[in-house]
């Protein structure tokens, strides 16, 4: 059996006249197993491999996964540079080259969320991502026209039948509100409050 440079064969005790069995014994220094609680152990290796990426390569990597708003991309790239002017120039360049588009980001966000969230939640998300007020209000108006139908679809999927008592009414009403649908739409959809017979 061939040995590598770091291994030697060590005899194992001879039991009751059987032939001598050899086990491999390594002369390499024992490497300590990584401590699973040490969060910094792999960080150096991971960051050193990513440290070589240019700011533009990082930006294109983010944008190739999904659309980002300018503000969101700025926030993600800021920790990787000390030069704020260079970052702004890069963002301008990405917009000129059509890699970065707030309009495309808005369309993507609306497409992902409008089917299950009300106008209020979608508009809030657009504002959090730094989109301009004109774009946000225009999208809000378009979504407002279909809010009742979208609320009805979400409600139908979750509940399917109208509330039969005040507790169930409150539960369904809160659900619609938590999804960002207006109080008016929730009342219109759920109808009159069914008062319990006491």
Walk me through what this model shows.
The protein has 198 residues and is mainly α. The protein has 3 domains: 53-96, Arc Repressor Mutant, subunit A (Orthogonal Bundle); 102-145, no CATH class; 147-198, no CATH class. The protein is 55% helix and 5% strand. It contains 10 helices and 2 strands; from the N terminus they run ββαααααααααα. It has helices spanning 43-51, 55-65, 70-77, 84-96, 102-113, 119-128, 133-144, 147-158, 166-178, 183-190, and strands at 7-11, 22-26. A two-stranded antiparallel sheet has the order 1-2. α6 (119-128) packs antiparallel against α7 (133-144), α8 (147-158) crosses α10 and α9 (166-178) packs antiparallel against α10. The radius of gyration is 31 Å and the shape is elongated. Mean pLDDT is 82; it is low at 40-49. One of its GO terms (cellular component) is cytoplasm. Belongs to the RecX family.
How many domain regions? 3
| Secondary-structure class | mainly alpha
Order of helices and strands: EEHHHHHHHHHH
Q: Mean pLDDT, as a whole number?
A: 82
Q: How is the largest sheet built, in terms of strand order?
A: 1-2
What overall form do the CA principal axes indicate? elongated
Number of strands: 2
Number of helices: 10
Instruction: Please report the distance between the alpha carbons of the first and last residues.
Output: 89 Å
Give the radius of gyration.
Answer: 31 Å
Describe the main β-sheet briefly: 2 strands, antiparallel
**In what range is the share of β-strand residues?**
5-15%
Q: Helicity level, as a percent range?
A: 40-55%
Low-confidence stretches: 40-49
InterPro entries: RecX_HTH_1st, RecX_HTH_2nd, RecX_HTH_3rd, Regulatory_RecX, WH-like_DNA-bd_sf
Protein name: Regulatory protein RecX
Domain RecX first three-helical: 56-79
Family: Belongs to the RecX family.
